[in-house]
Amino acid sequence: MSPISRGFTRRRQSTADTTRVPPGQYVTGDFPVLSAGPTPHTPPDQWSLRIDGQVDEPVSWTWEEFLALPSETPTVDIHCVTKWSKLATTWKGVSLDVLLEYVQTEAEYLTAWSDGGYTTNLALEDVTDGRAWVAYEFAGEQLESEHGGPARLLVPHLYFWKSAKWVRGLTLTPNDEPGFWETYGYHNHGDPWLEQRYQGD
Amino acid sequence: MDALDGNAIAGALFEHFGHDMTMAEVRCSHCQSTSMMAELRVYMKAPGDVARCPSCDEVVMVIVNVRGTERFDMSHMEMVSPT
Amino acid sequence: MAGTALPRRLSWQLGRVVELVDETARTKSIVLDVPDWQGHRAGQHVDIRLTAEDGYQAERSYSIGSAPEDPHLVLTVERLDDGEVSPYLTDVLMPGDELELRGPIGGYFVWEESLGGPLLLIAGGSGVAPFRAMLRHWSAAHSSVPTRLLYSSRSLDDLIYRKELLDGVYDGVEVRIALTRHWPDDWQGHRGRIDGQLLQKVAWTPSERPLVYICGPTGFVEAAAQSLVGEGHDPRRVRTERFGPTGT
User: Exposed (0-12), middle (13-18) or buried (19+): which is C220, by Cβ within 10 Å?
Assistant: First the structure.
């Protein structure tokens, strides 16, 4: 074990309601930016959102069409696998329940894919019944590109790597297909309350 | 987000390989171009360290700390010469 | 401490803070005594590891600012306001404290006398740190390799190693400073960011085949490297080291 560095503590964290903070997490007032690659900058006139894969017919929306869909303004706690949690974050987005109404499917899983090549896998039951959105505003402002804008997935009940930034499509799949981080060792499900950080947890 | 380069993960690479790897020449499996490890674009603010090819930007190496052990995935690169 | 080429092991060892030197308002040099130090080459870096009482650890890399010939190891740290490690090193660390480190690390971004030149060092902000090691080594080796340092800083107050560089401690090295935001009215150096024009003026011609080292924030490094390679310099003779955000 390394010697203690006199006077060193992790960055200041606010005291938090521990029934709201999953095990192993600390609360931050920042909104750290994590990324596996360069930040894409897709202008709205080149953006579209698509649902395809194991569906009767794929569907897609342009930016204008997407903004015209019914939206919600959820307030949620988010939890990153790198151990920071941010409480009461506010978003505006379209529920996946609304989006999935436009397709017929027997799929049980989906792969979310993004500009820049990022992917992550989710069970359909994890993104329905009011548990997930495609969000385009954060804290009342247009979502910045470094935080995933123009639009990102928002699935707050799972570790935040599942909330794919720069999302452009959902491909419905019969099986659970590991996405980017899942392929490199992270958990297929990712429930922070069960500390499902890595495969095998 | 600005990338760093292979110098930033030199310590982890040394630990894994047993010697300095910054000058090791590697070939990107996506575009076949070669570069030195020090020249890879490395993103370290993530659940793991992601190294990308300086020519085509595709991922060539990922380092993830899984329960205290550093796991190196180098499936998208080939070692051309060790140093 | 005589320099040896490569360490036999890369293990964590302890250094003791001997002295802290204010370089600028936000930058400090940490002078360390490292009893088991095996030596290093100019341009290499160390990894620093801090451990909190609850076991939490944070690691960062810092370039070695001292020459292999120097008696102590010097690390120059810029305080990043939202940083986790740098504010500890600049604000909390005191002489007598121990610091856990491993190194030296890196073989790519290294210069030693035997590599020759001409030698062009291009620094942005705190990216000047590894070049101090190279310049001190250059002096200690009584080198006759023609050497130029081009250093970009926001202002004179932000110039790290200001006294050494402006007082001409490295006698024979051509030092050129570019101040990007504030400069004195009578400033004779370059005003504004380093651009292709200034690089062309300061760099040797491609046919003279200089060894070029560029260190600083990513954008700075890439712009300078692209400019030089675009002018015809051999990319294999241009070495780059990207730092995280600094105050340039």
Answer: buried
Distance, C-alpha C146 to centroid of its chain: 19
Q: What is the pLDDT of residues C18-50, one digit of tens each?
A: 999 999 999 999 999 999 899 999 999 999 999
Query: A11-20, A89-98, A161-170, C78-87: lowest mean pLDDT where?
Result: A11-20
DSSP letter for each residue of A145-164: GGGTTT-EEE-TTS-GGGS-
Q: Measured between CB atoms, which of A36, A185, A198 is closest to B46?
A: A36
Token couple for C58: 């944070």
What is the structure's pLDDT at C55? 87
Angstrom CA distances, C88 to C47, C50, C57, C235, stand at: 15, 9, 13, 38
The residue type of A132 is: A
User: Which among B2, B4, B23 is the nearest to C108, CB-wise?
Assistant: B23
So what CATH class is C13-105? mainly beta
Q: Residue B23: which of C107, C219, C243 has the nearest Cβ?
A: C107
Output the CA–CA distances (angstroms, integers) from residue B43 to A198, B7, B63, in the order listed. 20, 12, 10
Residue B54 is part of which domain span?
A: 4-81
Mutation target to probe the B interface, by most B beta carbons within 10 A, among A1, A28, A35 is A35
Phi and psi at residue B24, to the nearest 5°: -65, 135
Structural domain spans, chain C: 13-105, 113-243
Q: Which residues is A26 bridged to in the sheet?
A: A84
Tell me whether B52 touches chain A (CB under 8 Å): yes
Cβ atoms within 10 A of the Cβ of B68, count? 5
Whether the Cβ atoms of residue A79 and residue A16 lie closer than 8 Å to each other: no
Q: What does DSSP assign to residue A72?
A: B
Query: For chain B, how many structural domains are there in total?
Result: 1
Domain at C113-243: CATH code: 3.40.50.80
Identify the CA nearest to A124 among candidates A188, A163, A182, A173: A173
CB C92 within 8 A of CB C99: no
Contact state of B4 with C240 under an 8 Å Cβ cutoff: no
Domain A46-194 CATH assignment equals 3.90.420.10? yes
ipTM for this prediction: 0.93
DSSP for C151-164, please give it.
Answer: EEESSGGG-TTHHH
CB contact under 8 A, B8 and C103: no
Asked if C145 and C117 count as a contact pair (C-beta separation under 8 A), the reply is yes
Q: Which one, of C246, C5, C1, lies nearest residue C127 by Cα?
A: C246
